[in-house]
Amino acid sequence: MMKYENRIGIKTRAQLEKMREAARHVGEILLEIREAAKAGVTTGELNERASRSIERRGVGSSFLGYGPAGASPYPAVMCMSLNEEIVHGIPGPRELKDGDILSLDFGVHVDGWHGDSAVTFPIGEISDDTQRLLSTTRDSLYRGIEQMVPGNRLSDIGHAVQACAEAEGFSVVRQFVGHGIGQALHEPPQIPNYGRKGKGPRLREGMVFAIEPMVCVGTHDVRMLDDDWTAVTADGQNAAHFEHTILITDHGPELLTAVPGSH
Q: Domain tally for the chain?
């Protein structure tokens, strides 16, 4: 019987160069859209700006038209989720306002090789408690990334995320997970943001994962909106989402989607 870790793709040097290029574009466009996100701007306007950047750079959108079996195709190039929206919010006529928190989730591909990243940030002034949610979610991402070294187990990542978030009194979403990434936006394995450490396949050099904690102020239970895409917290409290595409190497995790000035 083939071991599970042998079914997780190991990327070649040439493949990784394509992924690094895609991931660089992801990080740079996310930073551009973050800087353009101000009170009074609509999420639809931000999506149009991202679409123009994709076209100008000559890369492909990983999100536009994406749809798992049975789902309607996603209608935008970037997911934009506000406040209690956890993930997969659809851009449109909503205007940003002071006190909002906005999550951007974004991916592009170069010659069929994908990069994927997400960030949550404030629009204007936010409360100290909301800033603590954002800071903790970001910290939980990096606690998970620290576990991405050869020889560790897959579940060590989610265990570290969960421990960080719950130590601050927050909860981690169970319904959505991190994932492998490469020629498909979502490849094996699924990577929950919770669980016991020491379980699952061993990590190996050349594996590439998208790690993406989704952390909630209250319950981790999720409710889906009628658009079939937007996931919101069941109790209406705020949530945050951070993500990087990371390569496992013998000298430590390489954050492919990190660019100067990004999260």
A: 1
Its domain, for residue 12, covers 4-255
CATH number at residue 10: 3.90.230.10
Question: Which residues fall within 8 angstroms of residue 213, CB to CB, at 6 or more apart?
Answer: 137, 140, 141, 144, 161, 165, 172, 193, 241, 242, 243
**Nearest residue to 212 (alpha-carbon basis) of 245, 181, 234:** 245
**Within a domain: 260:** no
220-233: per-residue pLDDT in tens? 999 999 999 999 99
Task: Kindly state whether residue 65 falls inside one of the protein's structural domains.
Answer: yes
- Distance, in Å, from the CA atom of 149 to the CA atom of 155, rounded to the nearest integer, reads 12
pTM above 0.90, yes or no: yes
Helices (H), 37-127: 43-57
pLDDT at 70: 72
Q: What does the alpha-carbon distance between residue 133 and residue 127 come to, in Å, rounded to a whole number?
A: 10
Taking the C-alpha atoms of residue 54 and residue 77, their distance in angstroms, rounded to an integer, is: 9
The sign of the torsion formed by the CA atoms of 95, 99, 161, 108 equals positive
> What are residue 246's DSSP bridge partners?
209, 255
Alpha helices in the chain (DSSP H): 13-36, 43-57, 128-146, 155-167
